[in-house]
Structure formats: C-alpha cells, structure tokens
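Practice problem. Given the sequence and the SMILES for adenosine-5'-triphosphate, write out the predicted structure.
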Amino acid sequence: ENEKFVLISHAPDSDSWWNVIKNAIQVAGDQMDVEVEYRNPPTGDLADMARIVEQASATNPDGIIVTIADFNVLQGPVKDAVDKGIPVITINSGTQEQSEKLGALMHVGQPEYDAGFGAGKRAAAAGAKSFVCVNHYITNPASVERCRGFADALGVELGSQMIDSGQDPSEVKNKVSAYLNSHQDVDAVLTLGPNSAHPTLAALRDSGLAGEIMFGTFDLSSEIADAIKAGEIDFAIDQQPYLQGYLPVVILTNYARYGVLPSGHINSGPGFITKDNIAQVEKYAGEYR
Amino acid sequence: MSTPLIEMDNIEKHFGPVIALGGVSFNVMEGECHCLLGDNGAGKSTFIKTMSGVHKPTKGVMRVSGQDVAFSSPRDAMEAGIATVYQDLAMIPLMSVTRNFWMGREPRKSFGPFKWIDFKHANKVTMDEMSSMGINLREPEQAVGTLSGGERQTVAIARAVHFGAKVLILDEPTSALGVRQTSNVLATIDRVRKSGIGVIFITHNVRHAMAVGDRFTVLNRGQTHGTAKRGEIKPEELQDMMAGGQELAQLEGSLGGTV
Amino acid sequence: MSTPLIEMDNIEKHFGPVIALGGVSFNVMEGECHCLLGDNGAGKSTFIKTMSGVHKPTKGVMRVSGQDVAFSSPRDAMEAGIATVYQDLAMIPLMSVTRNFWMGREPRKSFGPFKWIDFKHANKVTMDEMSSMGINLREPEQAVGTLSGGERQTVAIARAVHFGAKVLILDEPTSALGVRQTSNVLATIDRVRKSGIGVIFITHNVRHAMAVGDRFTVLNRGQTHGTAKRGEIKPEELQDMMAGGQELAQLEGSLGGTV
Amino acid sequence: MSDERIKQVSAIRRAMIRPELGAICGTILVFVFFFMIAGDSGMFSAEGVQNWGVVSAQFAIIAVGACLLMIAGEFDLSVGSMIGFAGVVIAILSVQWGLPIWLSIIAAFVVCMAIGALNGFLVIKTGLPSFIVTLAFLYILRGLTIWLSILTTRQTIIGGVKEAAEGDPLAWLFGGVIFKGLFQWLGDIGVIETFTRGSRMGQPVVDGIPMLVVWALGLVIFGHWLLTKTRFGNWIFASGGDAQAARYVGVPVNRVKILMFMFTAFCATVFATCQVMEFGSAAADRGLLKEFEAIICVVIGGALLTGGYGSVIGAALGALIFGVVQQGLFFAGAESSLFRVFLGGILIFAVIMNTYIRRMITGER
Amino acid sequence: MSDERIKQVSAIRRAMIRPELGAICGTILVFVFFFMIAGDSGMFSAEGVQNWGVVSAQFAIIAVGACLLMIAGEFDLSVGSMIGFAGVVIAILSVQWGLPIWLSIIAAFVVCMAIGALNGFLVIKTGLPSFIVTLAFLYILRGLTIWLSILTTRQTIIGGVKEAAEGDPLAWLFGGVIFKGLFQWLGDIGVIETFTRGSRMGQPVVDGIPMLVVWALGLVIFGHWLLTKTRFGNWIFASGGDAQAARYVGVPVNRVKILMFMFTAFCATVFATCQVMEFGSAAADRGLLKEFEAIICVVIGGALLTGGYGSVIGAALGALIFGVVQQGLFFAGAESSLFRVFLGGILIFAVIMNTYIRRMITGER
Ligand SMILES: Nc1ncnc2c1ncn2[C@@H]1O[C@H](COP(=O)(O)OP(=O)(O)OP(=O)(O)O)[C@@H](O)[C@H]1O
Ligand SMILES: Nc1ncnc2c1ncn2[C@@H]1O[C@H](COP(=O)(O)OP(=O)(O)OP(=O)(O)O)[C@@H](O)[C@H]1O
Ligand SMILES: [Mg+2]
Ligand SMILES: [Mg+2]
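Answer key:
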C-alpha cells in the first residue's frame, strides 16, 4: 500500500504538453492509492535529467518511469536503477529496443523519427513537395528527429527547411510569416507541438493561407482541436500522453503488489487525429488528451 | 553683532564606532570668509556635509539666520540658501556644462500639463555667468569632462552664486590646482565675499587661508582648536595649531618656515 | 660633473592632436632632489610617466647612467632602478599592505617546479620598513583601504626605497595631505635623498619645493622654462615662472605674497 | 582658458557626433544590405514591412525601458521573467478567476510595477549591483510564474483569453489595429496587395497598423522627450553619470532609480499584454532571454553600460536593426541557426563603433 | 599614526571576517536544513551523497574559473555556450571524423582556450566591458554549435562517443572513477549498500569517486593555491582591484586577464568533456544558463562582482550550496518550479550577508 513512484521527463518547466501526463499520474495515483512524483530538468538539459534519475534511485522508490530522451545519456543512471532492483518503465520518446537494452519492464510511447516519418507519408499522399518544419525547440534532439522523419518521408533534404523559431510566440509567428513570404512554393507545414502550432496557425490565418496549405502538427491542444474542426489543420499526431502517464503507474502498482505484468510493449501512438475523429477527442484536449 | 547667516552649535557626528565630530561650534557672518583648517581626517568634510544636509548630525543644533533648522536632504539646505562646492566637485563629466550648471533646479516652460526645460534660457544664462567669471566656453553643450580642473571649479562656484546662495561652502577647492588656477579661485572667493555672501573655505594650506580669510577655525580630530580673527594670528601659529604643535617642530629646522 | 642617474633629452610626447610634451630635457644626479613644477596640464605627469615606462616618448632620447634605454613597460623602468609614486597612488585598497608593498616583485620560495610567495618574509620586511618610516601598522594583513592618505603615501615611498631604487619619482605626493602628513613626507624625501638616491619631486607648491629641492625645473604647456639651482632663485621668482609671469601680478596685491 | 594646443573640431563633425550616430549608420547599412540580398523576396512588400516592423516594435517596447534604466545607471535582468509573469497574471485573473479583462490588465500593471519598485528598492537600500538583485528576480519571477500557473490551472499555457477579451475596451488598446479603413482603401486602389486566395480574398494583406507598433512609437517618443527635454530627464542622466554628485546637488537619485525600475516593468508589461491579446494565451516560458535582447538593442543604440550616457532614439534604432536582421535572414533564406552568430557579430561591431564616437564627443581617453 | 578614535576589533572577530565566512555559514545552514526535512529520504545515503556531490562538483568546476576571472575584474557570459560548443567539437571530431578521442579532446581544449583568449583580447584591446563582449560570444558560440552539429550530422545531438572512447587514456581521465577497489571493499563490509540483483549483484551502488569530483577538487585546490599563495595570484587581485595601479607597478595586467579568460574556457571545457565522456553524447543545448549559475556560485561565495576581492574556497562552497539545494529539494519532494524561487532568495540573502562582512574587513563605507 501507498507505494511511491517517480516519473522523470526531459521537458523543461515551461513545456505545456506535459500537463496531460501530470494530470494522468494524478488520476492514476488517486485511483491506485499510490504516490507519484513528477520531476524534470528545469531548463531541459538532459545531463541534468540524468542527475535526477540518479537522485530518484537514491531515494529507493517502488518504481521509476522515465523518458528515453537520449539513450546515451540515460543508460548509465537507468541501468544503475534497474540493477538496484527498482522496476523501470520507459515512456514517450525512445525506441522499444532501447527500452529493452536498459532493462526496463516495458516501453509505452512513440518513437519520434517514426512519428515524423508517418506524418511525412500523409503529407506526401496529399501531394506535398516542399515543406517547412517549425522547430521551437531546436536544441532538443528529439525535435530534430521529427523533422528528419518528415523530410525523409517526403524524400527531400532537410536543410534549411527546418527553422529555428525560438520559443516566443511572436517570434515564431513572424519567422513563419517571413519564411512563407520568401518561399512561396511551400505547400506543407509541420509544427512540433502547441508551442509552435498556435503562432504558426496565427501566421497562416494572417496571410490567408490557413486551410490552403497542408498543415500537420504534433500533439493536441484545445486550439489545435478547433483548428482541425475548422479544416485549418489537417492532422495532429497524437501519442496519447494520458496513457503514457496512466498506464505505467497502474502497471507498476500491480507489479509491486501482485507481481503481474503484461508482456510486450505498448504503443500509445502515433495516432492521427483528423476532422473525422476529432469530435471524441476534443472535449478533453489539453487536459486528458 | 548681527545674527550669523549660519550657526552650528556643538555638532556631533558618529559613524558607527568612529566619532568623526565631537562637538564642533562654528558660524559665519554676511560678507565674511571663514576658513576651516585641519589635518587629514580632522572631520572638515564631515562637518560641512552636515551643514549642507548630506549627513544628519548625531547631536547639536543648526541655525540659519537665527532659526533652528534640520535638513533632511541637500535640497533642503539649498532651499535655505546654502550652496556647497564639494571636494569631489559634484559635476557629471559626461553631461554638458548647461545641464550641470542647472542640475536640480532646471528652468522650465510649460504648456498645459507638460513641462520641459527651457534650454534657450538655460544656455544663455550659463554662458553669461561663466564669462562673468572669466571663462569663455566654446559652447554650452560642451561636456564637463572636457574642461580643466580649474574651469570645473569655476562652473561649480558660478552655479552656487547664481542660485542666490547666502552661504557658499568650498571644500578644498585649491588642492589640485596650479598657481594660476589657484589665484583665480582665490580671486573669485574674494569677489563673492564682497557681494555680501558668507563664504566657508576649507583648506590645508595656511597661505591660501591667510590670503582671503577673515576668521580661521582649526579642527583637530573632530574637535575645534579655537577660532582666530585675521591679524590676530600669524601663519606660523596657525600651522602649529593644525599640526597639534608637536612632532612638526623638530622638522621645521631642516625644512624652513611654513609648508 | 658625474654622469646623471637619469637623463631625458629633448623628449616629445603627442596624444593624437594634443602635444603634451614639446621637447623637454631634464636630468637628476645622485643624492639630489630635483623639483619639477608647473601649472595644471603643464605635462608634469606625462613627463614622469614617460620616464617610468608608462608612455613611450614620441621623440627624444632617454639615458640611464649614461646608457641609452627604451622602456617598453613600467617593469623595465623598475628593473633599471626607477621607482615611481604616482599622483593616483597606485595602491589597491582592497588588498593588504604586504601584498601592495610587494606587488610586482613578490619574494618567492620554491619547491621543484612550484613557486609561492614567502609571506613570512614579506610580512616581516613590510612591518620593518614601515616602522623605519615611522608608521606602526596594526598588522601587515590590514587592507590598504583602511589607511589614511599620508600612510598610503608612505607605503608607496617605502616600497620604492626598499626595492633599491636609484631614482625615486614622486608625483604631487603632498597635494591632498595635511600639514603634519606633508612635513612627514618632506622629511622622508630628505632622508631618502641623503641615502644617495636621486629624487624627482613634482608639486604645485613652491614652498614645498623650496623646502627640499636642490634644483628646480619649471614646465609650462609642454616646454621647459629653465632650471635653477637652490639659492639662485627666490620663491617669488619661481612662482612667477610657473604662472607665466602675467595675470597673477594684479591679484598679488589683494592676496599678499606667494600662494 | 581655452587651450591653443587642441585643434578645433569642425561644425559638421560636431553635429554628427551624437550617441545615436552609430545606430543611424548601422540602420542604413543593414537596409542597404538587405535591399541587395533580399530585395526581391517580399521583404519590402507591405506584408514584409509589417512583418519586421512588428518584430522591431516589440524589441523597441522593452528597449525603451531598458534604455532609460541603463542611462540611470542600473540594469534589469528580470525583464524576460517579468514578461512571462505579467502574461500569466492576466490570464489567470481573467480566464480562471473570471475578472473582466480590463481589470486583469490593470492588476497586472500594478503588480509588475510594484515588483519593479521592489527591485529598485532592494538595489538602493542594499547598495548591491543591480546585476545581482535582478538576476535573483530573474529566477524568482520565472519560478513563481510556473508555480502559479501550474497551481491554478495545472498547465503552463493558459488559453481562452481571446474569448474573454471580446469587446473589452482595454483589450483593444493592446491587441487591436488602427487605420483599418485607410488600409482597406489602399488595398482597393492597389497600393497594397490583396489576398488572392483563401478565406480573406479581396482584403488587403495588411489590414491596419497594429497597436503594438503604436505603443512602440508612443513609448519611444515619450522616452525621448522625457530624457532630452525635461527636468526629470536631466536627473536620469545625472543619476547614472554620478549618483553621489547628483545627490549632492539635490537630485532625488533614489526616486529616479526606483521610478526607472518601475518604468522598465511597465514596458515589460505592455509587451506581455500585447502578446497575450494577440495570441489569446499566456505561457510560463514567454520572454525567455528578452532581457539580453533589450540590453543588446540599447547598447547597439549607443548607450553606455555603466550609465549616464545614451539615447532613446538610438535604442529604437537598435531595435529596428535587431528586428530587420532577424527577419531579413529568413527572407534571404540563410540558415536560421546562423542568426545568433550574426547577432553576436553585429553587437561587437556596433559597440566598438559607438565607443569610438563617444570618445570623440567627450574627449575621454 | 594609529587613530585612538577607532575602537580595536577583537582577534576572534578578525579571524572570522574573511570572504568565505558567508558561504561557510550558508553551507552549515543548508546542511542542517536538509538533514531536518530530508534526512530519511536517502539524501545522505552513499548514493544520495554521490548524487549531490557530483552536481556540486560540476558547479564547482565552472565556478573556479568564473571566480578567478571575476577577481581579475572581468566576467564571462559565454561559459554556457562554450560548454555546448566544446562537447559538440569533441563529438564531431571523434564520431564524425573518426579521430581518436584523446586527439579530439585536446583539439577541443585548444579551440576553446583560443576562443577564451580571443574574448580576453577583445576586452583588452577595445576597452569594452566584458559583459558586452562575452554576451556577443554567448550568441555566436551557441549559433555555431547548432549550425555545426546540424551541418555535419543533421542532428543537434551526437551520440556514439562512448563506443569511440573505449580504452582511450584521456577519456578515462574525464569519465572514469577512481578508488574502485576501496569502494568494493566498503560494499563488501556493508558500509555501502550493494546491488541486490541483476547483472551487478554484489557490487556497491557507488563504485568509486567519479573523475568529475576529482577534477573539481583539483581545480579548487589549484585555484585556491594560485590565488592566495603565488605571485600570479597577487596579480589577479591587483588586476581586478585597480588595473591602472597594477600596471603602474609593473603587473602585466593584460596577460593576467587574458590568461584568466583562457582558464575560464579551460574549466568550461573540462565540464563539457566530463559530461560527454560520462554520457557518451554531446548536444547543442548543453550548458544553457550555466554562466549565470557559475556567477551565482561565485557571488554566494563572497566575491565582489566588480573584481579585486573573493575566494576560491568561497566559490566552491557556493557551488556546494547550489548543488545541495537543487538536489535536496528533489529529495524533499518539493515542487520543482519553486527551486528557482529558492535560488533567487538564497542569492539575495547571501549577497547582503557578504556585503556586510566585506565592509567589516575593509572599512569601506
Ligand atoms: N561615511 C563615513 N563612515 C565612517 N567614517 C567616516 C565616514 N565619512 C568620514 N568618516 C571618517 O571621519 C573622519 C573625518 O573624515 P573627513 O573626510 O571629514 O576628514 P577631512 O578633514 O575632510 O579630511 P581631508 O583633509 O583628508 O579631506 C575620518 O576618520 C573618516 O575616516
Ligand atoms: N592619455 C592622454 N591622452 C590625451 N591627452 C592626454 C593624455 N594624458 C595627458 N594628456 C594631456 O596632456 C596634457 C598634460 O597632462 P598632465 O597630466 O601631464 O599634466 P600635469 O602637469 O600633470 O597636470 P596636473 O598638475 O593637473 O597633474 C594635458 O593637456 C592633458 O589633457
Ligand atoms: Mg575632506
Ligand atoms: Mg599631474
């Protein structure tokens, strides 16, 4: 009873997407009657994240849930935790192979490159040839992976099609408008999350291109959901973060209490949300979806 | 005897453990130049800073024209007609002569709620006042940093006189100046005094004091060593008083006379 | 006549458009105190900075003990035995007396490749030298910022003498000092001179110069106005020379004698 | 007592050497450069101009505050955190607490200016360098912002402000556009391009002047007037030039400095409010590194880091240069990560030039 | 000439008032605090100690460089960018170009120290404040880092260094651990916990002292010795205290300052190399905001922002406080966003205390 788990993400304090996961562990914690802490490196520095993993394992929790933001960085601390006998479940970014190499029980998540690749496939099917990938977090390796997957699926070189937009919404918006202005041939836009999707949407609306060009984004928010309904965004790649937070807690609790464990990994995403399936998603966007 | 322009009665000033002034009394009359002499660290600067509202006295009474006053800021002292030219000049080198001249009392024009500095007037007055002191500026917008030490000193004095000071305090105005600049400043003091303003002149240099002073007060380690009138005291005596009368004597021989 | 310790031959120094020195010749002999006088901006500080390696002369020859030299840094000048006490003191207030005293020439002990300052020795020497100058320090670790102006001046002089200077240059050491401190510094100069060191003493104050000087050179606007020996010239003449002989005359009357 | 050894300087040269000269030259240079390499990329079409205009205006808003504060001898590293904080305060008050927008905005201004005053108060009372005090507030405010927004909304991004702001009088003042009619007419007569496709076909691509730009212009004019024409401006220079000297002649240095900290906070809040009104959401990470960008604009504009010298016009030109370069590189299609390299280069170059100019003015060596 | 008007201070008081006094008190306070609120959370188990020990050691490494530089009167905002840059250089050279690790490490040291020297050279030649020059390099280096890593690998993270580093002599120096035997023995006799299952069963949870900690200790000792015992240390104080005065007595101020910039770069590179060797990858975002953290440690440690005063021991204690507080809050389970609020508070508190102490020492007012 009253087991203690720690979830460690790689996201900086300001990344709003993680709210869903925070909410999920809250719900799971209440339901299972366990204590779940959320921790992250404040600036998003992965080296700091490794320290947090070490620190978490020093407190001897009943389980650790961790993202594989960078396999290299995390393998030491995570392996140490596993060797100490702490059950570990990996979530979010990273691959299932990496998860196995780390000795984790299972992986719940979505590989970034593949998700980008899938998005690219869709765009290619819609006839896109030239795109821009709005990267609001260029210093984060996973973000570049997404753009790379997208480019590879379209069969084009990534090059300067990925723009370093910065985090500030005005900056993002203006940079996107500038780019679209000077590259009239762009027919697809990929944004990597609400942080870049919202301003990009504003930029497209301002230039009257919303709904005209192919627009895909990662992750969901209420604003993105509205835009999908309005036909301004074609699809959002949903990795269902709720599951990434909820399932590991439930599984770890049951594992701790009764030793039961599902076999195999769980793919929480990528799921594509389009106009067709938006209705059911919309209600909880940004909070549980 | 008329009431003094300013009168300090038994002023004490402590800085934490340091007793900078231990009961100093002092006054200055209209049209008089009262010299304040003393060694390094005697408390001269502290004393006049008290007089001009920079420090608040720990104990003692200040009277301006017979009225008790307590200054809470240099502004108050200025309002009361006490103008001070500090040892460290109080000029801002990067700013123009006009701006420095008027600092703190800028002349203003207004239109409705808007008020702005009347630069035309300010420049004219500055040029006039400076040339009446014998300094011809290239232009009033010249930065003070480009003036020589003597010129700066003169700007500071001209400013004080212009704003209708009743008492002008000068803290070691001559210590860094050459002979010619020094005699200029002394002449200016003389002129100012003759116009009826009371001057308090601080210096280490007995001869400078003797040249323009009407009365002389010597401070030593925060105490007054007495006040003397012009003609009542010889330079050598004054010097002995400043030095405390000891030590110095044995050097006198080899160095000859007053230093 | 023996060779001068240091000889400056027709030195010029330009700062961009400003000609600070326009051909100055000067020398100092063993055991002599040579005073350099002049108005503000005459170029005194510039001249001695040239002598001590801070500035490079634009033109002219420098000789130390008869040998042509060209200093590329103050260090070179120090190696050649020229020690300077600058107008702005060159002391670092937050550092201890010992560290200031030895600055640039710290005594070292070594062990293999490691070298470190020999603080025991350094402290002892500092205390000794200071007390031989008549200053008793509380402790050698005391920060220089806690010393009075006169005490700092003495540290600077003691330092120069200790490092076996052949020539000691003092730039207005007395301008900010009180009477007692001044006579101390003058006495120190006297002592130093008697030990065979050549002293170059810069001042505005004719009387200070007359007290210890053997020869007097007056600079004016970057030019020498001639050199005079002790006894050959009266203070009044020297003063006239410094001021350029004009203007001043008319003030003399009201101010009386030398300033 | 003038000195015959110093050559006289010519009148033209004298008229030219002013704090903002470097920034003026820089602006010309930058425009010529981008005309040449990106003249045909749409950078100088109505839409393009609006694009970099808005970016520059944003920089200008915070640069004016930073400029006056820097001239008064202090600087403020907490501007960026303040921007995030102000936005979140507005959003929480209006969306979460249901206050009307105008009240939320006023509350944000009050709170932020109070924090600015606290900054100033600490700097003055403790005598510490403002670098340290405001660095502390950089962390404190950012931490509070994240903590507050998570505490009240369990999110770090708070949306829905746009809906709440419908028809609000103050909201328009920060998020609206003016001269709509004029621009529609300009579009109709073909001076400005109109949309040729999409939902807004027929409307001009630029539909008015955003209030953001109006604010920027207003603040620049106000700042310039305040600094050069008024008594208070004289005191700002004096406080930064030599606080002790200023105090001696009766300038209320403490009041000046605290007011300037408050003005900086005011500018940061204007920035934040405009942004929140434009995007309809506030986020805890807004304004990251903006403090540096403001300082860079000011320094490019010729102000002295140590205070007592500078110009608001210069700072505004600095903001213009910053904005044009940042956006221009996109129009020119340069690798976007190189922007930072450029920025650093321009900064060093500008400052060296400004130093040279300042030495000419003040005769400083 | 001693002055009877000043009371004598007691010997104990004199022995106590030293630059690092504030930091010493702070350290004690912080430890007591965390003992109380997180004593049973594993924070003081071997593993927990290693955790905050390593974090503190990291801070200490950059703090030593920043401390000496600050005492020499300058400071360096490009430290954080330098860390990212150095890591990427090592990774590109070794993984992409296939150079041996030791050569890559040496190359990174050479390049970074050259950049440090360039920083110093610019500061000295132009006479600009180091704030501006190094701010420019903050942007330039970060831009270059991103651009380089994307150019060569199309990613902002470069992995695979660990594989390349197998058996490399220099790599061990930065990424290894020492005293393995000792710790194994401690584990065997039960002083340290051991793994209870898995492939490493029986091994101690802490398998030695990481080289990172060794580096930190080494640098602190070296820095302290250099500063307080050697001639060069005296020159560092002098250069920061009054550069002009130091120059006059023959201290080669320019050389001292440039060397200190290089030393700071050296420390940043040590930090980067240890990180790369430990984690096996380099990323473009490493080191973000580390410059501030270094400055904060130094200032908490009692150094004066304007130079000429400070202590390496103090800076190291500052780093310890920083590390313990940061990790301790996690151990105590506090909301992590509040960390920044704490940090800001500690900073202000520490600096006020240090100012008070300094005034007592120097008689400054
Ligand atoms: N703010 C202060 N705090 C503490 N002590 C002070 C302060 N100001 C002055 N003192 C001390 O008070 C004493 C008198 O100083 P003051 O500056 O008044 O001397 P002074 O006569 O003007 O000397 P000088 O001739 O060198 O200008 C000195 O011992 C000085 O150290
Ligand atoms: N680094 C410099 N650059 C330009 N001009 C300089 C420089 N140093 C000095 N000068 C100028 O050279 C002239 C001589 O200055 P210097 O300091 O040598 O005079 P001084 O005789 O020492 O005066 P004082 O008695 O005031 O100390 C002055 O006009 C001064 O402005
Ligand atoms: Mg004084
Ligand atoms: Mg001089």
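Check your answer against the key. The first strand of chain D starts at residue 157 and ends at 158.
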